[in-house]
Every structure is written in structure tokens, then in C-alpha cells.
Amino acid sequence: MQNLFSVEGKTVVVTGGSRGIGAMIAEGFLRNGAKSVYITARKVEECQVAVARLSAFGKCEAFPADLTKPEGIELVAREVEAREQSLDVLINNAGAVWAEPFDEFGVAAWDKVMNINVKAVFFLTQRLHKMLTASASHENPARVINIGSIDGLHCPPLETYPYSASKAAVHHLTRTLAARLAPDNILVNCLAPGPFESKMMAATLAALGDQIKEASPVKRIGRPEDIAGAAIFLASRASMFITGAVIPVDGGISTTL
Length: 257
Known about the structure:
By secondary structure, the chain is α/β, with parallel strands linked by helices. The chain has helices at about 20-30, 45-55, 70-85, 105-125, 130-135, 160-180, 200-215, 225-235, 255; strands spanning about 10-15, 35-40, 60-65, 90, 140-145, 185-195, 245-250.
């Protein structure tokens, strides 16, 4: 019963790890003893800034890549394989959101959101499957943690049609991957965040932040330790009997309102 929540010594990949929720999770793992945390993002400059900050807490490297493209997924996988024999935790966090009026919503915006939010989750997990299997055992499973959203659990007030659809898809993809990968001793779960301080949420919080806080049962938005703690739980021995779950991390917004 000791050290149930330890992630010490684990090797972790966090997509979209240069800012927002991804950076919060990466920092949480580093501060709690992860051996190596590798992050991805599209922009080289953002990767460099993130690594400079996160390296104060432990070993962190970044691989700039566009995960909507096969060559981006291959680049990340090869960089990890060049540095590690196995992978303990894959966190599929990279995502995008787009809002347009219903009558004007375009195909390009729809495809952009779906490609990064759903397609990349599947194909990066597929590509890193062997590395996850190499670290996994019945008594110490490897983990895949997908980042969904409460917008995939309820109907959002904004016209972000592919975002909410993509996150609902991630939730169900989590269940199907959990069933497929359980025989390989890989647990697959999903976190569905509510409002957190991030670039993606900045405009919404600027316009509606006070209303969101007031409507929340806990009267606040998410803090870095809230999402990092949930991810650490799903990567630790404390969650070894959980797979295929979608866990809201939203202060009760999706479950009580």
C-alpha cells in the first residue's frame, strides 16, 4: 500500500506538451520523479521555450512535429526510440479547436480539428505500441492517457462543432483501445478536462470566465496540479485496476449541472 502514486523512474511522452494542459502534465511528472519526459509541438520556438523551463525539474526534450501527418508521427517515434528501449506512459494531449457559425463552417477547419484531435491519437498510439509493450507487464502495465474534454460529454454553448465531436470520438476510442491493448498489459484511459488556463481557453475565459466560475460547483477553474494529479494517478499503481475510463476533471461542471 506504499508509494501507490509514484511515477518515479518512468519514461513519458506528452504530445502538445509545450503549453497549456500538456505543459502542466509534463511538469507534474518531472516534479514527481519521472526519468524522462519527451514533449511534442508543431512550433520549434515554443518547444525550445518549454524545454528551457521544464528542464529545471528534470530531463526534458522536445521534438517539433506535425502529428496530423505520417512523417510527423514517424519523426517522434524514431526520436523516442533513439533514446529509450521502452516507453511507460503516452499522453495524447495535442489538440485544436475552431469556432464558426453553423452556416459558414468550412471543410478545412473541420478536417484540421479532426485530424489532430482523433486521427493523431490513434496513429501515434499505433506507432508507439511496441515501445509501450516493451515496458509493460501484468504487474506493471504501460499506460496510454488520452485527453478528451467535457465538451465531448455535453453540448457546448459555442459553435465548435468538430471539437465536441472529436472529443466524444476520443472518449469512445479510449474504450476500444482499452479493450484491444489490455492483453498487451497496456491500460488506456481518458481525462476530460473542463476550464483551465490555456491558450485554447483564453478567449472563452476572457469573455465568460466569471460566469464559468460562478456556475462551477467548486467556484473556480482548473489549476495545474488538478490535471497533473489526475494524469499521475492514471500512470501510477493506484490505477492498475482501471482501463477504458473517461474521468471528468472539471470541478463537477459536467456531472452536476
